[in-house]
Amino acid sequence: MSSDYKLDIVNNQHDPEDPGLNTTISSRLSQERIHNQGMMSINNFTTNAERRALNERFLKANKAAIDDNVSLHVNGEERHHLHGSAKKSGPLVAGTAYCISSCSMIMLNKIVLSSFNFDAGISLMFYQNFISTVVVVLLALSGRISVEKLNWKLVRVWIPVNVIFIGMLVSGMYSLKYINIAMVTILKNVTNIITAIGELYLYRKRQNSKVWTAMFLMIISAVSGGITDLSFDAVGYGWQISNCVLTASYSLTLRWVMDEAKKSTKSGSLNEFSMVLLNNLLSLPFAIILILIFGEWDYVIHANVIKLPIFWVVATASGLLGLSISFTSMWFLHQTGPTTYSLVGSLNKIPISIAGILVFKVPLSISNLFSILFGLFAGVFFARAKMS
């Protein structure tokens, strides 16, 4: 439109004073201005509409992003809360499982040996270890756990500690037969004393004054407990002292044997499941030899108690609990640490002692009860001292 207007002026060359020409030019200028304003209005309207549409899309996108962030934040908080709850409840569940397994194992062994009057501790140990071996092998075959492949070199290294392990189990069985559970738990404190002395001479590991004070208190509680024990049995105390020596020897020897055994494996390591399998599997042939030497086989096949189904239920349950102690102790140790594990192990003696006194109706004097409580306190004090 603007180019047409210029051509028209050049061709006609009319006088500027001519009213017709002015009218024509004015009208054309007005039309041009109106057209341009219309086009600008249309363009502005289009631009504004596009901007509004873009703004609306941008606001919607921001709102959706904010909603997603809020949702993710809430879900993240929920997941964090759930994870925190599981993390807090894990040690509690593991510790409870360990304490229940330990208490139940001692109670069931006492029932089998005393209540059923079963006088074949080695045979009971053989049956329990056989059950543990079968369970571990089945778990390994199903892929639930991993164990090292056994070889003669590994077995040869592990045999010495396994012999001590068998002696520890057998002596523990017979001591539990003749002594009440409360006194067994108190006398077990002697194991800590022997272990500490062994660590001092074998590994040059010195203890602080608090530990030695705790051990002195444990000696006093053990002696006073034995003197005031109304159901004192010299044979049972002899078995328990032997058990303390063998248990301390086992813990002191295990460290060296584990280092040597790792050199005999393909992976260069030895996990807890492999050690459980080694201890239980290798104990079976030794147990058979001991059963034949001590004449337990003849006793077992003629005993009336083995004809009772409830006897086998209790004996099998004790075997499963023996294995569960190994698993729950490893689980609890993984969830917490050695210090908490040691402290809970000492505190666990309190409910075991109380349950043993109540269930088996152990005759107590005031002095004997005081000795038991004093021994339990000394055990807890020892664990606290070891922490420091």
TrEMBL record:
Pfam families: TPT
Localization terms from the record: Membrane
UniProt topology in membrane: Multi-pass membrane protein
InterPro entries registered for this protein in UniProt: Sugar_P_trans_dom, TPT_transporter
Keywords: Membrane, Transmembrane, Transmembrane helix
Gene Ontology CC annotations of this record: membrane
Transmembrane segment boundaries: 120-142, 154-175, 181-202, 214-232, 277-297, 309-333, 366-383
Start and end residues of each stretch annotated as Disordered: 1-21
Domain annotation Sugar phosphate transporter: ranges: 97-381
Name of the protein this chain belongs to: Sugar phosphate transporter domain-containing protein
